[in-house]
Amino acid sequence: MIQFLTFFFMISVVHASWHTDISPYLAGKSSPFTPEKLEYKMSWNGAIKSGKLTIEFGKKDKRYPKVFLSHAYGRSTGPAYALFPYTFTFTSFAKLSDHRPLVFVATEKDNKEEVATKSSYKRPGIHYNSTTTLHKSKKVIPRSHQFAAKAIHDPLTAMLAIRRQPLTKGSIVQLCCHPFASPYLIKVTVLGREKHLGHDCIKLDIQIQKIDKKTGKLLTYKKLKQATMWITDDGQRIPVELRSKVFIGDVRATLTKRSPL
Fold it and tell me: The organism sits in which domain of life (predicted)?
């Protein structure tokens, strides 16, 4: 389920191409977002329960009055937990005015290790730091690097950035996302509008490529073959369902409940 180059690497032709194509932070139209709590069930092929996910967009916290705060947390369940026990918490701190990422903090745990991540988004890129603690040996492995691009997102601000766009049929939005150890190029293509699971939705095709931190070259992301997302066709544009064809099969995240915060 989840690292952004020394700031002035020599930029290759391939790097220059994707770097030019990604959307700047302020692309699109800014509109108010009503804080919401979204609950999802995870499944294999829509049948076998594999986990649960909760996302809280725009949660209020008096400690951070000038920040748009979002949380995501969840865990594997059922047969998936038996094979791969996994829990995570993500926290995204973004600018209140335009949802530009400021800091992303995450903790991930499985049966082998615990990874604590902190990514700070500062022009012209990101400072990434993490520590991996191995359960068996108690060994702690620190990692850090810097990566430059004109606009870099964490997973939660990436969703908010897509929301800002007109999303007309056939339009394409490209984003650089770098919350963890590697940067990725996300290409979102609008397939159209349709009814899905009882909601008026915008259907999106999602393709992901890994970005080599040293050369900027785009690489095949072997863990994800293809993904389709439906988001509500309203002012909120929240995810209704994500279907991903990954290395372990068809994994889905389906909205089960939404409530105001």
Answer: Bacteria
Dihedral (CA of 63, 1, 98, 214) sign: positive
Q: What is the mean pLDDT of each run of 10 residues along the chain (261 residues)?
A: 30 57 85 94 86 96 95 94 93 94 97 97 91 97 94 95 95 94 95 98 96 91 87 96 84 96 92
CB half-sphere exposure, 89, CA atoms < 13 A: 5
Find the DSSP H helices in the chain: 13-21, 78-83, 155-163
Q: 194 to each of 186, 188, 197, 204, how far by Cα in Å?
A: 23, 17, 10, 11
By three-state DSSP, how is residue 78 classified? helix
Coil vs helix vs strand at 238? coil
Pair of tokens at residue 39:
């609950």
Alpha-carbon distance of 120 to 10, in angstroms, equals 22
Helix (H) or strand (E) holding 161: helix 155-163
Residue 15 main-chain phi, psi, to 5 deg: -60, -45
pTM for the model: 0.89
